[in-house]
């Protein structure tokens, strides 16, 4: 700590992202990236933007992208917010919509950035335990709160909450903002964006880092009632007017417009997941039902941390969390069929 720090910085507990190793020959299954590249149309759009216009600031509103998202989901562009990755969108949500003095509610096993934002913005929170099968029980969220947030499918479990349960949650909490973080929804879930016109307290976030394979461009979004979006715009315009650069705006818009490529690559990831699940089960793993581009699995007879270390020694990296309830699980990103096979080849002798 330095005397120059603002005092609260001393107590910050920052998020720790999954490793981005420098070695190139690794089978990298640790941060839920897409094994297939971005849409060729997105790449072409970004290449076309690499020109003299870069001397000019981008559109602070990212209107071209907002419109592409609005068209895709059949909403209005004033119901759409865009930001530098959904992490930034989430940060603005915590800052602008969750500071009510009452505790924010989220699951005990979930995206580990949520408590970090609470620390950053001084938001009290309570964790709500998932049930024995690691599923969200919406009845447990009927208690005083200053907001509710959870990923759907949840991370790192991959478990999906049906839209009907989300509607029950929204109806039971009409005075709270309910945020559904749909980072992984395209790999097996139905989006709650179809509910935003009926529930003014619903905000849905998504990212282009996973199903649209643009993790390196940093683009995320939120869809909800214009009044919720307005709060986010106010925060954004008090923080950074240009969170998305010129290439991100055109590349992300083109990615939304190229439905065929998106649907085909999502189908490939899902097929690859189903195959990996059977292979893992054959090795004796218990695998939670996944609607995401990763699986969460434990072996009854092998220590997860040891397995992760053994895999790493042979160039395969997966994610292990040293956290209560999930210490014996590995989170494995779905790779190509070849990457999955490389994982199984290394894992089999360790089991
Ligand atoms: C549940 C969840 N939400 C949000 C994010 C953030 O994604 P990004 O900032 O790349 O949009 C992640 C990233 O892994 C995630 O797992």
TrEMBL record:
GO terms for molecular function: histidinol-phosphate transaminase activity; pyridoxal phosphate binding. The keyword Amino-acid biosynthesis applies. Gene3D superfamilies: Aspartate Aminotransferase, domain 1, Type I PLP-dependent aspartate aminotransferase-like (Major domain). Its EC number is 2.6.1.9. It comes from the Bacteria. It catalyses: L-histidinol phosphate + 2-oxoglutarate = 3-(imidazol-4-yl)-2-oxopropyl phosphate + L-glutamate. Homodimer. NCBIfam families: hisC (TIGR01141). This is Histidinol-phosphate aminotransferase.
């Amino acid at each position: 700590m330095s005397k120059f720090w603002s005092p609260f910085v001393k107590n910050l507990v920052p998020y720790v992202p999954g490793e981005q190793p420098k070695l190139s020959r690794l089978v990298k299954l640790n941060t839920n990236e897409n094994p297939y590249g971005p849409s060729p149309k997105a790449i072409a759009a970004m290449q076309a933007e690499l020109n003299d216009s870069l001397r000019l600031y981008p559109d602070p509103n990212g209107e071209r992208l907002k419109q592409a998202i609005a068209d895709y989901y059949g909403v209005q562009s004033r119901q759409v917010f865009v930001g530098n990755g959904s992490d930034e969108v989430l940060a603005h949500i915590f800052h602008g919509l969750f500071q009510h003095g009452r505790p924010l509610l989220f699951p005990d096993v979930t995206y580990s950035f949520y408590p970090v934002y609470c620390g950053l913005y001084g938001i009290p929170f309570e964790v709500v335990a998932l049930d024995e099968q690691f599923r969200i029980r919406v009845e447990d969220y009927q208690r005083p709160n200053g907001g509710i947030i959870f990923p759907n499918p949840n991370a790192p479990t991959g478990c999906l909450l049906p839209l009907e349960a989300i509607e029950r949650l929204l109806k039971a909490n009409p005075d709270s903002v309910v945020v559904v973080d749909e980072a992984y929804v395209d790999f097996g879930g139905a989006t709650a964006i179809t509910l935003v016109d009926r529930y003014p307290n619903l905000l849905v976030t998504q990212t282009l880092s996973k199903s649209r394979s643009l993790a390196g461009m940093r683009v995320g979004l939120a869809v909800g009632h214009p009044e919720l979006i307005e709060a986010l715009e106010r925060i954004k315009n008090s923080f950074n007017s240009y969170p998305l650069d010129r290439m991100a705006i055109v590349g992300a818009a083109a990615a939304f417009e190229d439905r065929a490529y998106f649907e085909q690559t999502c189908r490939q990831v899902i097929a690859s997941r189903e195959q990996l699940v059977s292979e893992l089960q054959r090795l004796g793993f218990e695998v939670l039902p996944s609607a995401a581009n990763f699986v969460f699995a434990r072996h009854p007879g092998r220590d997860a941390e040891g397995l992760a270390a053994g895999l790493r020694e042979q160039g395969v990296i997966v994610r292990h969390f040293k956290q209560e309830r999930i210490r014996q699980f590995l989170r494995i990103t779905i790779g190509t069929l070849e990457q999955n096979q490389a994982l199984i080849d290394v894992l089999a002798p360790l089991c």
